[in-house]
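Show me a record, fold above all:
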Amino acid sequence: MKIKLRNTFLILLLNIGNLTFAQDELTLSDCLFIAFKNNLSLKEASFNEKIAVVKHNADFSKIAPSINASASNRYSWGRGIDPNTNTFIDTQFKSYSGSINSSLNLFSGFFNLNTIKQSKQEIEINKTLYNKLKNEITIDVATKFITILYTEEIIKAINEQLASSSQQLELVTLKFNSGYVSESEIFKVKSEIGNLEVSLLKIKNELSATYIDLKTLLNISIDEDLRLNPLVNENVFIKDFEKDLIAKSLEKSPTFLVSKLQLQKAKT
C-alpha cells in the first residue's frame, strides 16, 4: 500500500513539473499580458492619469463656497470681572461665544473655470499618453517576439548546414585519400564550416540580446528561463492588432491626439 501511495505521489510531482514547463512557454498574447501588467513606464503613465483625475476633482473646490465655524466656552471662579456689570465679584460664572463665516468667489475673470477646463484636458492628455505608450509596447513586444522566433529558425538552419558540411568534409577527405580530389577541396569545405560557425556564434549573441530586450519589456528577471511558442491561435490578436494600430486614421492616432490636446491646454 505504501509503495502504491509513493508511486502516486511521484506521478503527481511529474505532472506538476510538466505543467510548470508548459506555462513557461509563452505565446505572443501571454507576453503582451505580462508587459501590460509589469511594465514600469506603463505603470507610471497610469499613475499620472489617476493624479490628473484627483487634481481635476480638487479644482472644483475652488468654485465652491467655503464655510468656517468656531465656538468657545469660558468657565471661571474666584475673583474676577463680571462681563455684564464690569465689576469685581467673588463668584463663578460661564460665558459662551461662537461664529460662523462663509465666503464665495463670485467672479475671478474665469480663472477657476479655465483651471477646471485645463485639468480636464490634462486627464485626456494622460489617457492618450497611456494608450500611446501601450501601442508602442505592443509593437516592441511583437517585434522582439517575432525576431526571436525568426532567429531561432536561422540557428536551426545553420546547424543543419553544419551537419551537412561535416558529412561533406568526410566525403571529400575520403576522395582525397583515394586521389580523386586535391587537398584544396578539403580546405574549401573547412573554410565553409568555419564561416558557418562564426555566423552561428554571431546569431546566438544577437538572440541573447533580443531575449534580454524582451525580458526588459516584460520587466522580469534577466536570469529567468523564457521560452516562446510560435504564433499559434493568434489570429484574433493579429486582427485586433491590425484594426487598432494599422487601420487607424491620423486623427485617432494617440501621438497626434497628444499634440492636439497639449495645444488646446496651452491655449487654455
In short: The mean pLDDT is 75.
